[in-house]
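Database export, one record per block. Field names are fixed; values are copied verbatim from the stored entry.
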Amino acid sequence: MVEIRINGELVTFDSNFRDALIFTIDGLKGSEEPTLKRTYQEFKDYTDEDLMDYIETEFDVRPELIVNRRIDSKWYTKQHILDD
C-alpha cells in the first residue's frame, strides 16, 4: 500500500501506485469530474516518475510518499537521489 500526503495531509491510501498519483493530481487540479477518466486520459503516456515530477513542479506543495507494509514484512525501502 502507498500513502500520499500533501503538506502533511493524507490525500490517498491505495494499493496501486499509479492510481494514487493520478488521484492526487486530480485533487490538486481541483477537478470536479465525478470520475478520474479525464485525468487518466491526460496522463496516459506519463511514467510514474513523470507523474511524481508533475506534482512537484506544477503545484506549490510538499508531497510525501509513504510505503505501508506489515511489521513482519521482509521488504524495506530506499531512496536514491538521481542526478540530472
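Remark 1: The chain has one domain: 2-67.
Remark 2: The longest strand covers residues 9-14.
End of record.
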